[in-house]
UniProtKB/TrEMBL annotation:
Cellular component terms per the entry's GO annotation: membrane
Lineage: Bacteria, Bacillati, Actinomycetota, Actinomycetes, Micrococcales
Class of the enzyme per the UniProt entry, highest EC level: transferase
Organism of provenance: Nesterenkonia salmonea
Gene3D superfamilies to which the protein is assigned, alphabetical: 1.20.5.1930, Histidine kinase-like ATPase, C-terminal domain
Name of this chain's protein: histidine kinase
Domain of life per record: Bacteria
Length: 624
């Protein structure tokens, strides 16, 4: 019964996932087709009318529309189950000037590129495969029926006859049975793999879309174009890891499919040689991102190879054909944006030297070669200068953003510190009032209660002294929190004060067995260690008095020599309380945390736990 229920639940899960994948994949292509058509028209009209300033007003609207389609894609990603957090756009504003600022929002430009160049081919592929795979299964399973209406032999039988007619069955009935059986099995295989295929299509679309539409990362180790060029600069919605590789890869593919036929046809370069040289030249655009020196060397080598192969064709322009010039400009653009300025300048100088060598190496200079060389030098120099300036501008913007983030973080910490100080002052006022009342009542008890014994008077004097000491320490801590210049300079307690602490605690009626230090020989310790030891013993005794009143407490404080050096070993152990605690003293559990923090601050360690007889022990080891 359980197995049947699990199988049914698994089947329902597969069906739900398949429905979710279909809901994401199938509407994607119609949406992409509509967005591509609309944005293409708006972009072309904006570019064509930019000269009369109409395009300057239409282009912001185009970017806003592209962002709207991108938000629709993010909504679809979230409905599928992907993590697509909202991105931050620059506000539109109400005036014309504010609307024009949309042109400076990189996220909207990335949305435009994504909706125009990425979604259409991506979702055409996923939609086509999904539709074909979905229809192929039922069509193959029902092939035995609709194949009867085909005028010729079955598809599989025709394939056998094309390979070897002897493989086909001799009779029409056996041919039909074989043909229908093969297609039926193929249909079952297609239907069985349908959920996995549709899910793979949806997952591929989601992965790429999420990478290109998600918020930017602040990963200092990113090695893409933007992180190399921009350092710590990231806009709130810039995704450099994906866009740098997608952008350079797309440019390389376009340049390859344009440059290969142009180089082979117009400049009479062998088709295979043209394929290799143009592929290397275009691949250098992407390689410059990750291995800039190798990419630049390959680009110059491929450009030189094209010069040598095309010199005898007599076709102009030479030595830099138009496609080679554009590709080399793309390589230099990547180098200028992604790397320090000297790399792009070095690459430009190497290209100029290559051009000069090509001009001097030919017996007869082709027509227009000098003009072409000047054009190359001018265009690539402009590309390098603009790229370097853009890199510097973005680096400065990144530093400004980092400074603003640092300032905001400091402001947040300042406000947090102010709030903590306010809370500390309020706590001090409450506790100080209570401690002051205790001190006054204890100090005036002998005047308010006549006939007190000397033992009672001594008890009240010790209570008054302890409360005054606690009040003074709290005021000192408050002065530190307030950041006051004049902080109380009372001496901090140390190892030599532990004996007095034990005596004061014994005066409360607690039985304490104390094995202390020889103050003349063992009390030589750093001030921080002495203070930590005193506070640890003090807090451990407070815990014993609070949670096990009237219990016997054993305190051991002794130095010892260890392989790592001299250590101070502290042990405070209390037995079980001899009577049931009706109203136990409240505790927040912060005392033991404070003990551990004090020990850790001086390089020590603390262990706590219950004893077999129901008591509790605190052990600490501090370096001397």
């Amino acid at each position: 019964m359980t197995s049947t229920w699990q199988h049914a639940e698994r089947t329902r899960g597969i069906a739900r996932r398949l429905a979710r994948d279909y809901t994401y994949v199938l509407p994607g292509f119609p949406i992409a087709l509509f967005s591509f058509s609309l944005l293409l028209v708006m972009t072309v009209v904006s570019a064509a009318t930019a000269i009369v300033w109409v395009g300057a007003l239409l282009m912001p609207l185009t970017l806003v529309v592209a962002s709207g389609f991108a938000e629709l894609d993010r909504t679809r990603l979230r409905s599928w189950g992907a993590a697509a957090p909202p991105v931050a756009y620059q506000p539109l504003g109400s005036g014309v000037k504010d609307r024009l600022r949309v042109l400076a929002d990189p996220r909207r430009w990335l949305d435009l590129v994504f909706e125009m160049l990425i979604t259409m081919p991506l979702r055409l592929i996923t939609f086509t495969v999904a539709v074909v795979w979905s229809l192929a299964g039922p069509a193959a399973v029902t092939y035995f029926f609709w194949s009867l209406f085909l005028p010729d032999q079955g598809v599989f039988i025709r394939a056998l006859n094309a390979v070897n007619p002897a493989l086909a069955p001799p009779t029409a009935v056996t041919q039909y049975a074989l043909d229908a059986g093969v297609f039926f099995l193929l249909g079952l295989a297609v239907l069985a793999t349908l959920p996995a295929v549709i899910h793979a299509l949806a997952a591929a679309d989601v992965s790429l879309s999420t990478a290109l539409l998600a918020s930017g990362r602040r990963d200092a180790a990113t090695t893409d174009l933007t992180s190399r060029a921009y350092g710590s600069y990231r806009t709130a919605s810039f995704s450099p890891a994906a866009w740098s590789w997608i952008g350079t890869g797309f440019a390389a593919v376009v340049l390859f499919f344009v440059g290969w036929p142009v180089t082979a046809a117009i400049h009479s370069v062998n088709v295979v040689f043209a394929l290799i040289l143009v592929m290397v030249h275009c691949g250098a655009v992407v390689l410059t991102l990750h291995r800039p020196w190798i990419g630049l060397a390959l680009s110059l080598g491929a450009a030189g190879g094209i010069m040598v192969a095309a010199v005898d064709s007599g076709a102009a322009p030479w030595p830099w054909p138009v496609t080679s010039l554009i590709t080399q400009s793309a390589v230099l653009t990547v180098a200028a944006l992604a790397r320090p300025w000297y790399l792009a300048v070095s690459a430009w100088c190497a290209g100029a030297v290559l051009t000069l060598v090509a001009l001097l190496g030919v017996a007869e200079m082709p027509d227009g070669a000098m003009a072409n060389s000047i054009v190359y030098a001018s265009v690539t120099a402009g590309v390098v200068v603009i790229g370097v300036l853009v890199r510097i501008w973005i680096l400065n913007a990144g530093r400004l953003e980092a400074a603003e983030r640092t300032s905001a973080e400091q402001d947040r910490r300042r406000k947090e510190l102010q709030e903590r100080n306010r809370i500390a002052r309020e706590l001090h006022d409450v506790v100080a009032h209570s401690m002051s009342v205790i001190s006054v009542q204890a100090a005036t008890a002998q005047y308010r209660i006549p006939g007190m014994s000397s033992t009672a008077l001594r008890e009240f004097d010790e209570i008054a002294g302890s409360s005054r000491q606690a009040l003074g320490e709290m005021r000192m801590l408050l002065s530190i929190l307030r950041g006051e210049d004049e902080v109380p300079t009372a001496p901090e307690p140390g190892l030599e004060d532990i004996d007095g602490l034990i005596d004061a605690t014994r005066a409360s009626g607690t039985t304490i067995t104390y094995s202390g230090l020889n103050l003349t020989e063992d009390a030589h310790a750093p001030a921080a260690t002495g203070l930590a030891a005193y506070r640890i013993v003090q807090e451990a005794l407070s815990n014993a008095l609070r949670h096990a009143p009237s219990a016997t407490v054993k305190v051991d404080v002794a130095p010892e020599t260890h392989s790592t050096g001299r250590q101070l070993r502290i042990s405070v152990m209390n037995g079980p309380s001899p009577k049931e605690i009706v109203d136990p003293a409240p505790g927040a559990g912060l005392g033991l945390s404070g003990i551990r923090e004090r020990a850790s601050a001086v390089g020590g360690s603390v262990s706590t736990g219950s004893t077999p007889d129901g008591g509790f022990v605190v052990r600490a080891v501090l370096p001397l």
